[in-house]
Amino acid sequence: MARQDALLRLHKNLIARRTELRKRLGLELEELGHIKHSSASGDVADAAFDASGEEIASTLAELEAKELAQIERALRRLKAGTYGKCEVCSLSIPVARLNALPFSTFCVGCQREMEADGGWNGANGHTDWGRIADGTTMDEREVSISELERST
Question: Is residue 7 within a helix (H) or strand (E), and if so which, with residue range?
Answer without folding.
Answer: helix 2-37
